[in-house]
């Protein structure tokens, strides 16, 4: 058998042995698709119907049936959008929250029973391999269709994931001391992210210090670079800042980021300086320059 056949066979058998095809998936009291819906709502709050369909990869007719079954159990609420009556918004109710929390606990017990049969090395390899395969499947899907990538304000539910990603990039990849990575909690700050489902694949932040706004903590998962995620985050975050009546933003950026920012109209303020072994360049992004550049790119 070639590798593709081996992977397909193992996935098929794993799904069967884990009982993922059963109504009581992983002893959670939920079907697999019900667990996916409830977990997404738990993480992301009120969600438009279309977003749920896109992020979970479920056709609209099937999703409607799934949501109606969850609504019948008083797990979710389905309401018309206050701004567009054609759109439906889905939210998690207390019984639904209880169901997914209990389901997660039972599923963890089920998986731990299996992991107890292996040793630490085996279990570490399983976790690492599953993560790597997950990223490969995600990248393959995003190359074909990147509509699932959402650029948005970072929800507090994802702050730990954002800090984890910035630490991986700045500390482990760029050798910047970990203590320099967090933004001073006393400073006014705004975070944005690139999200696919429950995966945070990019982050960026702005913070106000000494009456000046700064832009940074710009990071994209190294395994998902080359998909245009960084530029999309830069445009979205800077556009939001300038819509808040901020006139200019100061940035110290590495070469690859400077290349992106030059496409958006930044002005270089000085020569690069060494920052833990890599050059960073001081630049400024002015509101008018950014707006003009965006107009040119949309013509």
UniProtKB/TrEMBL annotation:
<dbReference type="Pfam" id="PF12802">
    <property type="entry name" value="MarR_2"/>
</dbReference>
<feature type="domain" description="HTH marR-type">
    <location>
        <begin position="4"/>
        <end position="135"/>
    </location>
</feature>
<dbReference type="GO" id="GO:0003700">
    <property type="term" value="F:DNA-binding transcription factor activity"/>
</dbReference>
<protein>
    <submittedName>
        <fullName>Transcriptional regulator, MarR family</fullName>
    </submittedName>
</protein>
<dbReference type="InterPro" id="IPR036390">
    <property type="entry name" value="WH_DNA-bd_sf"/>
</dbReference>
<dbReference type="InterPro" id="IPR000835">
    <property type="entry name" value="HTH_MarR-typ"/>
</dbReference>
<dbReference type="InterPro" id="IPR036388">
    <property type="entry name" value="WH-like_DNA-bd_sf"/>
</dbReference>
<dbReference type="InterPro" id="IPR000182">
    <property type="entry name" value="GNAT_dom"/>
</dbReference>
<feature type="domain" description="N-acetyltransferase">
    <location>
        <begin position="149"/>
        <end position="290"/>
    </location>
</feature>
<dbReference type="InterPro" id="IPR039422">
    <property type="entry name" value="MarR/SlyA-like"/>
</dbReference>
<dbReference type="GO" id="GO:0016747">
    <property type="term" value="F:acyltransferase activity, transferring groups other than amino-acyl groups"/>
</dbReference>
<dbReference type="GO" id="GO:0006950">
    <property type="term" value="P:response to stress"/>
</dbReference>
<dbReference type="InterPro" id="IPR016181">
    <property type="entry name" value="Acyl_CoA_acyltransferase"/>
</dbReference>
<dbReference type="Pfam" id="PF00583">
    <property type="entry name" value="Acetyltransf_1"/>
</dbReference>
């Amino acid at each position: 058998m070639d590798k593709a056949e081996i992977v397909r066979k193992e996935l098929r058998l794993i799904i069967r042995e884990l009982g993922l095809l059963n109504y009581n998936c992983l002893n959670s009291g939920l079907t697999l698709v019900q667990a996916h819906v409830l977990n997404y709502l738990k993480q992301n709050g009120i969600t438009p119907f279309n977003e749920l369909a896109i992020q979970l990869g479920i056709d609209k007719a099937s999703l409607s049936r799934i949501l109606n079954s969850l609504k019948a159990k008083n797990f979710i609420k389905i309401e018309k959008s206050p701004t567009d009556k054609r759109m439906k918004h889905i939210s998690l109710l207390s019984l639904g929250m209880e169901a997914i929390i209990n389901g997660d606990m039972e599923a963890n017990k089920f998986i731990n029973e299996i992991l107890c049969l292996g040793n630490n090395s085996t279990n570490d390899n399983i976790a690492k391999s599953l993560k790597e395969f997950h990223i490969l499947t995600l990248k393959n899907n995003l190359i074909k269709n990147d509509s699932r990538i959402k650029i948005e304000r970072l929800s507090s539910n994802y702050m730990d994931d954002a800090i984890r990603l910035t630490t991986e990039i700045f500390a482990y990849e760029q050798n910047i001391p970990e203590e320099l990575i967090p933004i001073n909690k006393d400073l006014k700050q705004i975070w944005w992210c690139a999200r696919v489902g429950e995966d945070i694949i990019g982050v960026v932040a702005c913070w106000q210090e000494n009456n000046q706004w700064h832009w940074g903590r710009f990071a994209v998962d190294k395994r998902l670079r080359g998909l245009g995620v960084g530029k999309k985050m830069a445009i979205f975050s800077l556009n939001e800042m300038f819509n808040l009546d901020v006139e200019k933003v100061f940035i110290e950026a590495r070469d690859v980021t400077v290349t992106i920012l030059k496409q958006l109209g930044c002005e270089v303020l000085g020569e690069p300086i060494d920052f833990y072994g890599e050059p960073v360049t001081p630049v400024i992004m002015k509101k008018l320059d950014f707006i003009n550049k965006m107009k040119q790119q949309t013509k």
